[in-house]
Structure prediction request, 912 residues.
Amino acid sequence: MALDTAPAVKELRQILGAKVHTGVPARTARAHDRSHHVWSLPDAVVSCASTEDVSRALAVCFRHGVPVVPIGAGTGLEGGANSSTGNVCIDLSPMTEILHLGVQDLDATVQAGVMKSALNAAAAPHGLCFPAGPGVDASVGGMASTRASGTNAVAYGTMRGNVLGLTVVLADGTVVTTGGLARKSSAGYDLTALFVGSEGTLGIITEVSVRLYGIPETTATAVVPFPTLGAAVSSVSAAIAAGVPLSRIELLDDVMVGAMNSYSGLSLKEAPTLLVEFEGGPAAVSENVSRFEAIASSRGALSYEFAADPLRRDALWQARHDALPAAAALRPGASTWSTDVCVPISRLADCIEETQADIAASDVLAPIAGHVGDGNFHLAFVLDPAVPAVLEVAQAVNERLVRRAVAMGGTCTGEHGVGIGKTSALRLEHGEGVRVMETIKAALDPKNLMNPGKVL
Amino acid sequence: MALDTAPAVKELRQILGAKVHTGVPARTARAHDRSHHVWSLPDAVVSCASTEDVSRALAVCFRHGVPVVPIGAGTGLEGGANSSTGNVCIDLSPMTEILHLGVQDLDATVQAGVMKSALNAAAAPHGLCFPAGPGVDASVGGMASTRASGTNAVAYGTMRGNVLGLTVVLADGTVVTTGGLARKSSAGYDLTALFVGSEGTLGIITEVSVRLYGIPETTATAVVPFPTLGAAVSSVSAAIAAGVPLSRIELLDDVMVGAMNSYSGLSLKEAPTLLVEFEGGPAAVSENVSRFEAIASSRGALSYEFAADPLRRDALWQARHDALPAAAALRPGASTWSTDVCVPISRLADCIEETQADIAASDVLAPIAGHVGDGNFHLAFVLDPAVPAVLEVAQAVNERLVRRAVAMGGTCTGEHGVGIGKTSALRLEHGEGVRVMETIKAALDPKNLMNPGKVL
Prediction:
């Protein structure tokens, strides 16, 4: 029995005017993320341009008991931004202002809807960059909400470490600022870390302060195919233990290399392959390239392409970032579903190899790519429309994958978040901890209006 | 009107036997940290050897409504572990077991009472180290509880980034595990980060999983005096912006250099001085030393001593770690009080210079040392027993220092925590955020038994 949201929508319109949309096209455009999870149309979309807009909208919804679902760029992969009938969608994509760029302090404060690419474009003229985050362009607020990371988390950390402070609107419209621009603080509970990764279920992040970094003087990429996946993974853990600084370490299985060759016009050897990036001063890069090459060679690396040319480097990384469309292109009309577990490095080769065996036994196509420097990897399930049962098979493989990863001391999601796709996996992983999360949720959102049904 | 704790202590003794101490020497030994803040004797001390001991003790105290105050090594500086009449002290110092050492994964799980030195001694034979934390030896649980850091946070981060997971006992004795051994996770609320830095007010940390690091191949230290404090600080921010990797960057003012010369038998020039450490492969270290020297020279560095000899390096860093006793030795019979603010680097020189002017105007002796790579610095007030009003003067200078730092966008504590010394400073800094903290505290500790009066 859905709540009648008409009185709330009427009041929203009185306060926020043309920012409130109830037409089907507007509601459809902001109803869901990029996942295959269920969604339905929100009753209204509020296009917010400021923290104040969000605060006013939430105060109205709170009084009327109407649930709210925030959305940014809509690039999520677990349904965290998916709407349902009876909720109001809080659209943060109009919040595109860069509020502060701290050239000396290496920090920036942006509105939640600022895209990663826009922040980098603003930082680049100052020799600075914002490296954290996924290959796909995403909003900084969305990345903070899901605790996102990406290919270079091994060097720069995830959003957990890169967010210095937040502005958050709570369920009743109260605005809270957390953290600050100091590089570290022991002042009270870490509310910043609590809201980062809470996927809009405790409050809506409207402004984010992040760390920036100097653009490295020198960057070099190596492409290293191996006879086995185990040899590739053990090269990575040996390099990390030896303290060789690597800024990205991507693993591609042979199927993924083949998909990338076809899609991106490469001619890489179709073997388990590491794509490794080195950064720093020229002498440091050269030294670290040599150290890594020695480690890889001793583990049977089949070849060692060292790409210093920026065009070649960009082509390789663009191909890596296009891994999902490359996988989809393996079957006509197919889409993909990207899974996301993370295990301790010592279990990574086992976890991937057992998963490959499961994929083979299940007769599903699912090339693998992973950020192996931190034990995180993804299957790109190819959802072939010619195979009706493929989604069910993929769901079963994914459920076994999650159980395998958790049993190995890992996590059900390294960077995509829980959304609606991993709520039972969260319970499997955290047990009693989920009750603590529920206690916090009930305390901060007593009416359960903030992105209900997500995470918990 | 103090609660009669006798029935609770009697029940504790029934369950935990000889682990429960009520003699005055045992209660005195565990009643306070190293700060100058008030304390009184707890009614009993429970020497806990395991998470189960803590859980059983807390369940009893919860039923009887008796407050509990945890203590580890007792090296805190803001009274966070100080007891009061009517509370039971939970002594974690017997929890000294290293439960897991992950040589391949570069991680360790330890009981809360394990000292940083003990963890490093266990890790060293495997070529690993645990660099995070203060110069003074401290327990890993205590470091997690206060979100501690120290001289090398600029390279390795604080406890915020170095704790992978926790075992925590909640107010009613429930045991919760948070995080895990995966290097990153987007699985639900970041309970690990919530408990880190909560100083025992939400639960008692009994086990801690931390990151380890490879011991660097090469380490070198530079001692660089400058004509002005501003020149020293601007060299640091220029080096960071240029991406020169520095593993430690300590600033000492001229008064502190003088104190260290006297106490540690050094003969450094008494000028604002940077103590800088470089780590990595030999070529990288040599390159970075040159890059930093060029930056420092262009800002008028007075000299540049490069200490590659391990004995000289150790002597310099030991002198730095002995800064507090060195300051105390400036006046016969004096003790010290170490303050702790952190500001954005762009404001650091201003903040220190305004503070030096205040120190001079207030006629108090307070040499300065700071972890300038992250904008954190400390005054070491010399509490001279020959000057009766010195503590009041120091308190006034510290209050102005905190207001100055917060007004500059900084924090009232970079690494020491809030304890009982900074509760009003926390409100000054976080405003509405403190209400969110109070909501969380009330939800997780409804009887207000967990280290009451601390932080909030």
User: Anything to note?
Assistant: The longest helix of chain A spans residues 345-362. The two ends of chain A are 22 Å apart (CA to CA). Chain A touches chain B through 100 residues (CB under 8 Å).
